[in-house]
Write a structure and sequence with these properties.
CATH superfamily: P-loop containing nucleotide triphosphate hydrolases
Radius of gyration: 20 Å
CATH class: Alpha Beta
Keywords: ATP-binding, Cell membrane, Membrane, Nucleotide-binding, Translocase, Transport
Oligomer: single chain
Number of strands: 10
Main location: membrane
Largest sheet: 6 strands, mixed
InterPro entries: AAA+_ATPase, ABC_transporter-like_ATP-bd, ABC_transporter-like_CS, ABC_transpr_CbiO/EcfA_su, ECF_ABC_transporter_ATP-bd, EcfA_1, P-loop_NTPase
Membrane topology: Peripheral membrane protein
Organism: Limosilactobacillus pontis
Distance between the termini: 43 Å
Strand content: 15-25%
Number of helices: 11
Length: about 270
Amino acid sequence: MDAVTLTNVQFQYPNTDRPILDDVSLSFPVGEWTAIIGRNGSGKSTLARLIDGLLMPKQGQINVCGLSVTEENMAQVHQQVGIVFQNPDNQFVGATVADDVAFGLENRQVATKEMAPRIQRALAAVGMEKMANAEPAMLSGGQKQRVAIAGILALKPKVIILDEATSMLDPAGRQLILDLLQRLRGERNYTIISITHDPVEMATADRVLVLDAGQVIRQGKTATVLQDVDLLRRIGVGVPAGQALRQALVDRGVFVPAQYFTEEAMVEWLCQQL
């Protein structure tokens, strides 16, 4: 079962000479984590905005959780999709952490008596319940992104889109967010679509989809796509450290199974060889 489908979708920005997305057909299964990679201008962020209905396609159809993405269905589509953007500072609108999470609920006209428990549950899910009354300026970048995720969780979407959401975080903060989302996906069966240039985030996904010049040029299981090191370098995407090490060993005639492409997996494999 698919959470999101795109059929022959085309989109072109005004005053440009070609579509940013051209005849794109894709599906995103329920509960799957898909990483979308590609060079700048390949159409990744445009794709995210089309799925959420922030943009409307020039041609083609988009379906989200059984809803056709049309002007008439926009409010219902927005209830199914939450986006975490790149800069956590640009996402804060409340004077406190709790106020920020409440903002989306107020826009959805959620009953006042229901808001407090939903805010509490959402903050607890991301480990920020003790910071409910904190001001945004007191938070680290990673904490701000956790609050942004809490704001989305409170709205109970089925699809979460990460639009370069970890790119401004340090490695520890990035890993914390990825681990958090992986845990929540397991608990709640979220469909996650991750737009990224980060090798670690890419390696977290079940599947990788490569966009170039507005078209899908490659998609498949993460381990399979990451073996194509030449492709990753050609589109300007970093090779995950684990895969780079694995490839270096393979190039020297050492057999390393394809599933060992993350740093943790390569450490495990190397320990097995001792």
